[in-house]
UniProtKB/TrEMBL annotation:
It comes from Rhodoferax koreensis. Residues 12-183 form the Cytochrome b561 bacterial/Ni-hydrogenase domain. InterPro entries: Cyt_b561_bac/Ni-Hgenase, Cytochrome_b561_oxidase, Di-haem_cyt_TM. Its main location: membrane. One of its GO terms (biological process) is respiratory electron transport chain. This is Cytochrome B. One of its GO terms (cellular component) is plasma membrane.
C-alpha cells in the first residue's frame, strides 16, 4: 500500500479496503454456493464433505479479513459522497453497513461456535487437518446456534440484495460516486 492510500479526502477508499471489500464479496458468494451445494450431494460422500468443509474455511477467512477491514475503516475517513446524501439516506446507509459488518462477524463466529460446542472439530478441505473441539459436547446449544446461523444466513440474502440494489440506484438513478469510491 502506498501512503496515498491513507490521505483523507481522496475520492476512493484505500487500496486495502477496496480489495478487502471485493474479496469478501467473492468469499460470501462462495460460502453461499458451497453450503447450498451440499443439499444436492449424497450424505457421507467426499463431495458433500468438501462442500461443507469449504464453507467452514471460507467463513473463517471472511472473519480474518473482516476484522482488519473494520479496524482500518475505523481509522480512515470515508471518501465523500458527491453529491452529498440527505439525513435519511445517510442513516439508511450507516444502518445497512452496520448490519453487513455485523453479519460478516457474527455468521462466522456462530458457525465456528456451533461446530465446537457440538464436540466436533472443523475439518479443513482436501486435508486431514482439523481445528479440534476442546469444548464438552452440548448438542442442544449446538443445534440452537446452527438454527440461528441458518436464519441469519437466509435473512442476509435480502440484506445483500438490498445492498446491491442500493449500489445500482446510486450508479444509475442518483448518478453519484458511491460505487466509484469502491472500485
Amino acid at each position: 500500500m502506498s501512503t496515498s492510500d491513507f490521505i483523507p479526502g481522496t475520492s476512493r477508499y484505500s487500496t486495502f479496503l477496496r480489495y478487502a471489500h471485493w474479496v469478501t464479496v467473492v468469499l460470501v458468494f462462495l460460502a453461499y454456493i458451497s453450503i447450498n451445494a451440499r443439499k444436492f450431494l449424497e450424505r457421507g460422500s467426499a463431495e458433500r464433505l468438501l462442500a461443507v468443509e469449504s464453507h467452514y474455511l471460507i467463513g473463517i477467512v471472511v472473519l480474518l479479513i473482516t476484522v482488519p477491514r473494520i479496524l482500518v475503516r475505523l481509522r480512515q475517513e470515508a471518501p465523500p459522497i458527491l453529491p452529498a446524501l440527505g439525513p435519511a439516506s445517510r442513516l439508511a446507509s450507516k444502518t445497512a453497513h452496520l448490519a453487513l459488518f455485523m453479519f460478516l462477524i457474527v455468521q462466522p463466529v456462530l458457525g465456528v461456535a456451533s461446530r465446537l460446542v457440538s464436540g466436533r472439530g472443523i475439518g479443513m478441505p482436501l486435508t486431514e487437518w482439523s481445528i479440534p473441539s476442546f469444548a464438552v459436547a452440548q448438542p442442544e446449544l449446538a443445534k440452537s446456534l446452527i438454527h440461528l446461523h441458518e436464519f441469519i444466513g437466509d435473512a442476509f440474502y435480502y440484506v445483500i440484495g438490498m445492498h446491491i440494489l442500493a449500489a445500482l440506484w446510486h450508479l444509475l438513478v442518483r448518478r453519484d460516486n458511491v460505487l466509484q469510491r469502491m472500485v
